[in-house]
Amino acid sequence: MYKDDCTKIDTSSVIIDESIFGGEVYIATLVTWVIVYFCMFKGVNSSSYVVWVTVPLPVFFIFIMVVNNLTLPNASSGVAMYIKGLDMDGNKPDVGAILTNGQMWSEACGQIFFSLGICMGSMTSLASYNPIDKPIIGDAFKIAFTNSGISFFAGFAVFSVVGYLQGLGSPLANKTASIGLAFIAYPAAIETLPGSNGWSFILSITLFTLGIDSAFSLLEAASTVIQDSPNAKQVPRKLISLILCILGALGSIFFSFNWGFTYFDVVDHFLNVYLMLLLGIMECFGAGWIYELADITSRGRGPKLAANILIISYWLPLAVLGPVSIWILEGSSWVGFIIFWGIHIVGVIASWMASGEKWGSYFFGIYLWGVRKLSRSMTKLSKTKGSNKREWWEPIFEIWWGFSIKYFVPFALWFLIMFSLKADLDTPYGDYHSFWQIMGWLYPLAGFVAFLYPIFRPPSREDFPPEVDAAFKEDDFAGVGAESSYAAGTVADSKGIDDGKAVEMAVQEGAKQ
Questions:
Q1: CB 302 within 8 Å of CB 354
Q2: What interhelical angle do 23-40 and 44-54 show, nearest 10?
Q3: Would the pLDDT of 316 be above 90?
Q4: Domain spans of the chain?
Q5: What does the alpha-carbon distance between residue 403 and residue 396 come to, in Å, rounded to a whole number?
Q6: Which residue, among 187, 155, 191, has the nearest Cα to 75 in the 3D structure?
Q7: How far is residue 268 from each of residues 113, 255, 260, 273, 384, measured CA to CA in Å?
Q8: Higher confidence at residue 260 or residue 115?
């Protein structure tokens, strides 16, 4: 970070050498919060119209920037850095060393979680406004691939500029990571281009619309959860949105000082890398290990013993081998991976034998408990209502999704957390002062406590309606979805349903039938 006089701010050897409040920055921040409020003050009735501008507009501008930037001198060098991983001197990377860098994977995973809204509540809250018969598997794949595709495409816009700066001999050409790329290297390149004011406008609008999307999506998630709680059902949505925006504006004061970038950087790192990944593990634990557990254990001594063996043989080795592999087996962490899955396979065999059931019955009924019911509900939604044909992709999706959520994802996220933890303990993140390290750690700690609080002080129980939480039937493949996502939305719109009432009415109609 730099002050107005271009002297470097020291947040490494001291907490801060001089604290300066940026009044202009905070005024711009307040204006942003006002815009966010008017984007979401009516819930999806307002935000759903805003995204018709804030989603396609930045994509259009990114396309313009890619086309222009690829024509810049030496842009090919930047593209080579992006695609081939070459360094500033054109040297080829050590692919093996890069791919085994666990911290890189955890940073990438945290970025994808943030980009897609995974474990942040935004996707869950926004999806709650869908009609209950809306197909979701296809939409999920479309969203994931479109998001990643646009991110990949945008990389050409920024790295071509890196090559351009390198050709100019700019000292900022090495700003190829994180925020420095968008807020330091790119603006520096724009200043040298013809029509720099126009390119500055395009960059500003692109970053602003992308940021606004993220902001009101996250607040929409919080607003939906608050309004769905028993104590806030009668509170107007406008008031909830106003309170959230006021709290956000007050919290933004800290980021408006000259040390605000340091504060933002540590918060961004520790939230994305630790809290998001940890919440991912806990959500998978709830969906794959807690949901339906009571049903499995109530079937008799064999299934109960089998379930307990699975739990112990998976979670205990995972908890132990995570830190052991990263700290004790440093440089040979892959050995820990093999040991873990070896123990798991032995545990599965022991669990199967204890269940006293045939393999097929055990695999789908016990090994995939919880996720089997969730995955089946998704495949049934993706088939037209009344269709009893078992499509070829159904068992593939159910096994792949179920195994991923219950077994692979917690394993991968836990090891990624361990990789990052070791890196941050060995070398303080960003070489910031210990004060800033502590401030960063407070956020995932607070989030973890907030996640655990309902376990010890659970809210009032809200059971699923009978038709939603009906007993699982192995041979029930009947479709329950609309012909398409468009058809589901059209039916809901024709009935004048909004603000989440589509789900409520569909459930009520199902109960009547």
A1: yes
A2: 120
A3: yes
A4: 23-269, 272-512
A5: 11
A6: 155
A7: 12, 12, 12, 8, 42
A8: 260
Span 357-367, pLDDT tens digits: 999 899 999 99
Under a CB-based contact definition with an 8 Å cutoff, are residues 350 and 314 in contact? no
- 68 vs 192: CA distance, rounded Å: 13
Q: How confident is the model at residue 507 (pLDDT cuts 50, 70, 90)?
A: very low
Question: Treating both helix axes as pointing N-terminal to C-terminal, what angle do 102-116 and 276-285 enclose, rounded to 10 degrees?
Answer: 80
Cα(58)–Cα(209) distance, integer angstroms: 7
Q: Which two tokens stand for residue 370?
A: 């919880």
Q: Cα angle vertex 334, ends 331, 336, to 5°?
A: 100
Report DSSP letters for 247-282, one per residue.
HHHHHGGGGGBTTHHHHHHHHHHHIIIIIHHHHHHH
Model pTM?
0.85
Place of tokens 């993140």: 429
**What contacts 462, CB < 8 A, 6 or more positions away?**
none
Regarding predicted confidence, which is higher, 287 or 124?
287
The partner residues of 252 in beta bridges, in order of sequence, read none
Quote the tokens at residue 128.
Answer: 């709650």
Q: What is the pLDDT of residues 449-470, one digit of tens each?
A: 887 777 777 666 666 666 556 6
Burial of 362-380, coded b for 16+ CB within 10 Å and e otherwise, reads bbbbbbbbbbbbbbbebbb
